[in-house]
Design goal:
The chain contains nine helices and 19 strands. The strands form four sheets. It has a six-stranded mixed beta sheet, sandwiched between helices. The chain has a five-stranded mixed beta sheet with strand order 3-1-8-5-6, with no helix packed on it. The longest helix has 15 residues. The chain binds guanosine-5'-triphosphate and magnesium ion. Guanosine-5'-triphosphate (GTP) binds next to helix 2.
Amino acid sequence: MQFLDKTKIRVVSGRGGNGMVAWRREKYVDKGGPAGGDGGKGGDVWLVADENMSTLMDFKYKSVFKAESGENGGIKNCHGHWAKDLYIKVPVGTVVRDVKTGNAIADLVEHEQKVLVAKGGRGGRGNARFSTPQNRAPQYCEPGEPPIERELILELKLIADVGLLGMPNAGKSTFISRISSAKPKIADYPFTTLVPNLGVVHKPSGDGFVVADIPGLIEGASEGVGLGHEFLRHVERCRFLVHIIDTTEEDPVGNYEKINTELGKHSEKLAQLYQIVALNKIDAIDKDRQQELLTQFKKKAPDVFLISAVTGENVDDIKYFMGQKVDEIEKPVSDIIVEDDPAATDNDDSAFEISKAAKDTFIIVGGKVNRLAGVTDERNPEQVIRFQNILTGMGVFEKLKSMGVKDGDTIIVGKLEFAYYDDEFYG
Ligand SMILES: Nc1nc2c(ncn2[C@@H]2O[C@H](COP(=O)(O)OP(=O)(O)OP(=O)(O)O)[C@@H](O)[C@H]2O)c(=O)[nH]1
Ligand SMILES: [Mg+2]
């Protein structure tokens, strides 16, 4: 199985549809009223945790996700269709971060837990909506809101109840394959396991708990020796650890201490976690040595088991004990601080820039000004006045004046081109 536990994706919500300017044309109605429909809302982008996913691997092949735009409003008061929201499935245990701020914006720890990461733009209102007693025939509409586009870091921290810890070749994978239905690769050489495996252990009561088998750890792992210690993040959320020791090695106690030192270098919190010690491979050592090791380890840890993952000796005992401890020990409180995420819903694009293209020509560029220009017909004085009013409210003219605009200068916004006169526009 391929595995990926950290990746970057780009999400883009849907643009809102534009409103419409239209008029009722009925056979016996002399002068119809405004009948331009609203634009539809653009699609949201959500991330949703799915227990059937176990890796972020899929995002290696597809990393850009775009929701559909809302439909533009139509004539006869027809509103544009709302676009479908986009749901991106991620594994349970995915932490979502905003690339710009580095903040965690979600920690998806439950199946079907979801988070909105990019809200679709609202649809613009059609001219039917602007009808007032003072103006029964408004000739303008609104553009739809823009999409939100952002980059996110996805980081997977598996959710398991129990983590298996130990040196390479200690028998972690053999052990998980005995107590659960997990079928990891087992071999007589170190670093057989390269990616974490999860296995569900069923208790006699019927419910189960999840065990994580991770790659072996060695001295110097925190400095990158062996496979490093990065994968330890996958046991950070465990209730406790089972430390598997190869009793056929020369110095089992020394090995145990080395691993615990590395654990502490990775995370103090992880080092504080309760451990059950499993002295493995007892089929390969004699009874005296077993008792000797048991005595030594009892001085180090409260709960020590002599087992053989291969023959199954005492495996049921430790499995039963693990089940009891799962019930006793609470899940650690997540240390991921989830921050508010205004960027997910902020469709505001009113920022603009003005550049002087020639001696007497100014070009205004900005999301909102360009969208407004897109729904403004320069031959329609009412639309032009509304456009001008909105630009005034946004501070565009103030800025132009500060840049030394003179009467008669040309102002260009998107497809529109105007001559500037004092504080009034003429098309
Ligand atoms: N004799 C004996 N051999 C065992 C026992 N448990 C595991 N082994 C052997 O030890 C070797 C390593 O076992 P694995 O389960 O792959 O060890 P691991 O801890 O997962 O190793 P890495 O994935 O490399 O970290 C294999 O050859 C196993 O057959 C045991 O109880 N007795
Ligand atoms: Mg293994």
